[in-house]
């Protein structure tokens, strides 16, 4: 092929599309439609993004505000409690109602339960101990306080069998607690006073067979031997 022919072929291969041909090209049409859509929807897109940012900012602000108000309310209630102010129990009760399930509510429930138990207001004490037991479980010290206090108030009311059941409920729930031997002993004594010899001996044996030498073990041995001697004498 001659040189002139090659040039003509290259020119034909790379010739520019006419305006009419461009308008018919589907890719060009699609690109134009996309650009037109983005131009028309630009304000909506910006508004949507701005709205999301505002919602996130408000949510963070509310969470921070709630945390701050919770701390302030707890500090006010505890300050009243530590100063034996007459409004202390009311403030703690309101705090528990508003921030139920929070870590600070955990402590507030213990303060309320212990206060009403000391006042021999057993209904109120039971209410707050039960609220703790039904809401929390990860703090073995507060758990011991709640179960021990709840069982103690039933002992005060003379319902020793119920007290023994509550002590055993703690034992089942907190199997690795440092207070197990104490709660076995309490359960044994409660059943002893309830007149349930078998349940009492069962709990005393748990201490004797499962724990090292301690005050609780010595007491358990004493009570078990007393029960055995009483039965033998009969």
Pick out its properties:
234 residues; single chain; 11 helices
SSE order and pairing:
Elements: H1 3-13, H2 19-24, H3 26-82, H4 88-98, H5 103-118, H6 122-135, H7 140-156, H8 160-173, H9 180-194, H10 197-210, H11 215-233
How does this model look, in words?
Helix 9 packs parallel to helix 11. The chain contains eleven helices and no strands. The longest helix has 57 residues. The chain is an all-alpha fold and 234 residues long. About 11% of the residues have low confidence. Helix content is 83%, strand content 0%.
Look at the helices and sheets and give the structural class.
mainly alpha
Cα gyration radius (Å): 38 Å
Question: What is the CATH superfamily label of the largest domain?
Answer: Tetratricopeptide repeat domain
Number of domains: 2
Q: What's the quaternary structure here? A: single chain
Which topology of the largest domain does CATH recognise? Serine Threonine Protein Phosphatase 5, Tetratricopeptide repeat
Q: How much helix is in the residues?
A: over 70%
Tally of strands: 0
Largest sheet: none
CATH architecture of the largest domain: Alpha Horseshoe
Gross geometry: elongated
Poorly predicted segments? 6-14, 50-65
Q: Mean pLDDT, nearest integer?
A: 81
Along the chain, the helix and strand elements come as: HHHHHHHHHHH
Helix segment tally: 11
The proportion of residues in beta strands is under 5%
Q: Write down the CATH class of the largest domain.
A: Mainly Alpha
């Amino acid at each position: 092929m001659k040189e002139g022919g090659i040039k003509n072929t290259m020119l034909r291969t790379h010739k520019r599309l006419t305006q009419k041909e461009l308008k018919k090209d589907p890719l060009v049409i699609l690109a134009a439609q996309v650009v037109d859509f983005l131009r028309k929807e630009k304000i909506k897109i910006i508004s949507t993004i701005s709205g999301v940012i505002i919602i996130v900012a408000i949510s963070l602000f509310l969470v921070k505000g709630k945390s701050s108000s919770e701390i302030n309310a707890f500090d006010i209630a505890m300050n009243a409690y530590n100063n034996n102010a007459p409004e202390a129990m009311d403030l703690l009760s309101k705090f528990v109602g508003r921030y139920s399930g929070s870590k600070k509510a955990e402590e507030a429930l213990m303060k309320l339960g212990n206060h009403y138990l000391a006042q021999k207001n057993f209904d109120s004490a039971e209410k707050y101990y039960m609220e703790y037991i039904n809401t929390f479980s990860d703090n073995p010290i507060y758990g011991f306080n709640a179960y021990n206090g709840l069982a103690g108030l039933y002992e005060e009311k003379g319902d020793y069998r119920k007290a023994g059941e509550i002590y055993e409920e703690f034992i089942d729930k907190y199997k690795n607690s440092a207070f197990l031997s104490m709660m076995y002993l309490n359960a044994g004594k409660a059943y002893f006073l309830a007149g349930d010899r078998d349940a009492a001996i069962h709990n005393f044996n748990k201490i004797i067979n499962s724990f090292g030498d301690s005050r609780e073990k010595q007491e358990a041995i004493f009570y078990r031997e007393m029960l055995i001697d009483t039965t033998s004498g009969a």
